[in-house]
Design brief:
three-stranded mixed beta sheet
Amino acid sequence: MSDLLRRLRGRGWRMTAQRRVVAEVLAGEHVHFTADEVLVRAAALLPEISRATVYNTLGELVSLGEVIEVGTDGRAKRYDPNAHHPHQHLVCSECGAIRDVHPAGDPLAGLPLSERFGFTVSEVEVTYRGLCPDCGAG
């Protein structure tokens, strides 16, 4: 059973066949599917699943804090089930591929107090950009 499914069961989330399939599609490392990619994969497992059900389920998972919605450079939003493990993203500027990365150290340490303008910082989002091996090989 995936970490996401285990977390959802622990919360007592009503597990319909459609919801289960969406959660199963989101299982694994470095998963950052668009809603349409989730739909295609879910329909392969449960052909009668609807677009509305997939989109509504993704919205619920984001609202619950069980999935992170990742937006990069105006591309379609992607859904990351790695919501409970602090990480940053490495994004290919060409094809949009995304990988989770875990840099050493505190990302907030790079922001001096003089640059915080009195803010109490609660979270930091860092996105690393470059070319993936497939796009940079050409």
